[in-house]
Amino acid sequence: MSCNNFEENYLDTSSNNSHLTNYGTTFINENLTTSYVNFANSSYLQIPTSFNPFHTWNSSFGITISSKIRTTDCGNWARILDLQPPPSSVQGLTISRFGTENNLRIQFGNIGIVVPYTWNTNEWRHIVFSISLTGT
Question: Of the four, 60, 108, 125, 134, which is 20 to 30 A from 74 by CA?
């Protein structure tokens, strides 16, 4: 389990020490109580290899990933979430824009679905993705 509040650091606030590694992201403070991580071009955050979301999913009650996102400029196949060994792999879970379309692509292994989604820029969205222990 990992819990990151992104209060100007990438530290896991749970007792598991699953701190994120930053690759080119920056913090933006909107006011005294709101800050967020800014991703540009190929920047990303990496979870430690000691944290395996698939192990967490299979050995407890499932897994839920939640994030609040705002796109300001979104290129083709822009990824919101990518949980897999190397980025070129199709062994894990990926949530991304579907090419140039205003659709969301959810892929788990070789199985993918496309759902309608409007990529409005500068609009905050709350995205929640859950997988139960049985995989539903």
Answer: 108
